[in-house]
Amino acid sequence: MTRVRLTDVAARAGVSMKTVSNVVHHHPHVSPAMRARVQEAIDELGYRPNLTARRLATGRTGMIALAMPEIDHPYFSELSRSIAEVAAEMGYRVLIEQTLGEAEAERAVIMDREAGLVDGVIFHPVSMTTVEIGKLRRDLPLVLLGESARPLTTDHVMIDNVQAARDGTELLRRTGRRIAFLGTVSHDVTGSTAQRLHGYQEALELAGVPGDTSLVLETGGFRVEDARAALSAALARGLDIDAVLCRDDRFAIGALQALAEAGLSVPDDVAVLGWDDTHLATISTPTLSSIAPDKRGIARIALELLIERIGGHQGVGRHRIAPHGIEQRQSTAGR
Amino acid sequence: MTRVRLTDVAARAGVSMKTVSNVVHHHPHVSPAMRARVQEAIDELGYRPNLTARRLATGRTGMIALAMPEIDHPYFSELSRSIAEVAAEMGYRVLIEQTLGEAEAERAVIMDREAGLVDGVIFHPVSMTTVEIGKLRRDLPLVLLGESARPLTTDHVMIDNVQAARDGTELLRRTGRRIAFLGTVSHDVTGSTAQRLHGYQEALELAGVPGDTSLVLETGGFRVEDARAALSAALARGLDIDAVLCRDDRFAIGALQALAEAGLSVPDDVAVLGWDDTHLATISTPTLSSIAPDKRGIARIALELLIERIGGHQGVGRHRIAPHGIEQRQSTAGR
DNA sequence: ATGAAAGCGCTAACAG
DNA sequence: CTGTTAGCGCTTTCAT
């Protein structure tokens, strides 16, 4: 049951390893007769090159690791798919890792756990700080995603969260005056929420609207239920709003639930805008408008940077902004 | 920028490779003094073992491939997570592959594309037939998931779809008489739908209810929208039902939409039961009851079978049934 | 308890 | 255009 090796094929075809190798790699300078003979031996023996051995010999694995907090979260699974597909176009395969946002798992990612297994890593940190990443990282090519940490030494891709939040807020301002922000999570360690809140505030200031802290809703956690509860409670307290900008699509789903329970119609009474443009936005009732990070764009930029690093590019960390848009659906119809 | 190797550490510590290897592997018979000296050299040099080289030497990769139709589909991403987590407990890492259900990609999975890269493969086929899989598969350890194909030579894990459909139908029958099935997709190549429909029919027959083909709703595709449209059209034609058993959670979401549009209340007028128990079921309004395959259980069984095969187990394909349940939420409240 | 040396299967100089 | 050979970095007998 021992596997067929290159030498077995060579012996069978009565040629050297090099010739077999040339055939396997579709090298040009092989006589057709030779090629046919070798191919026959390959087929008869059912030869498959051993990828591990090839990697060791070439020093190139053709694989990159992608480390994300949760592989089954809608945004991350959709982004993973984009990255895997774009990587395939660029000749790489992707090893998907889940950190669950745990510090230890994140540290393992940075500290060359994948030594010699992958050519580089794309990493979306949650709990590691900028300082920590800068300090612990090895010389493994690395590109960071998301907004929580950005060491000066490391490449980084994100969307402009502040601008996106401004765009969203301005959209909602077109027909409404009182725009809520849902939500700031207590003890949120991710920088995303802060940036989004910041953009929301900027847009209001630019519009000459006085800040109103009662419009900023804090949730107890990241679940849909937490968002629903936060908005429900606020509505019960008499909160009066025309629209709500949500931190992500899950929170927006919670908002739709809370508004429905309160007997408010979306979008007629209150408009709702989500964030991430995941598949959730297309299946809710009403369908959900959502700030849409360009996932393919993020994937492409991250891979380009990473592949340059793999190719030997040195220098300080580059900071790239990926495009975003707003996918308009029913929940903001008329805006 | 050349990496630190085992020999570098050995030279630095003034010992042989073997001793360093013993330390790295936490072998028992190493004197504490020696261990300390070697560890110091490892730390100073920042040595990380090259995993590719280790793999080539040991012949074991410690990695398995998981090939699924779509990595961002709720059911598959959740199942992937379970498999990755259980695999980690068992000392394996998972390389996730996406086939998009394409015949060519599926064939590549079977035909040792991963040669020497992984120790085995867990594969959820969609378009490959039983015969084709039996014919094309190499000697790479393989476990199949899902219900579409089951060659006699290959291990296979699934839930009892027929029984699960009976269970679901019986639950719905407790308070309703007219139970619809949504949906059979035109040209559905997966066996799942047929089995589920079969279980539904069996349950009705056992209850002495005459079959009624007007209750079996065919959809034009696998999207939420297809399901919504199918049920809407049926309701518009005057279809009168007490409950609907859905082929999967996405179809159930579509059913909720169609019922809401028709002014029917769930669960009071019509109960809805989904299938797969994905996160979608927890965020819909009302929340969705769903037939729940035990994803951890599937993962555990699949990995146990695969690891036995990796360990050299020979013999005919084993056919294992994983447990299922029904997660009851609002959409069937009162049943 | 530690060292020396022979592979694991493939690639890539370098010859011929 | 084809063959020979020396590694890639690690594990693993077999000695000592």
From TrEMBL, chains A, B:
Every HTH lacI-type domain range: 4-58
Xref: InterPro entries: HTH_LacI, LacI/GalR-like_sensor, Lambda_DNA-bd_dom_sf, Peripla_BP_I
Annotated PROSITE patterns: HTH_LACI_1 (PS00356), HTH_LACI_2 (PS50932)
Gene3D superfamilies: 3.40.50.2300, lambda repressor-like DNA-binding domains (1.10.260.40)
Keywords: DNA-binding, Transcription, Transcription regulation
One Gene Ontology molecular-function label: DNA-binding transcription factor activity
UniProt xrefs under Pfam families: LacI, Peripla_BP_3
Protein name: LacI family transcriptional regulator
Organism: Agrococcus jenensis
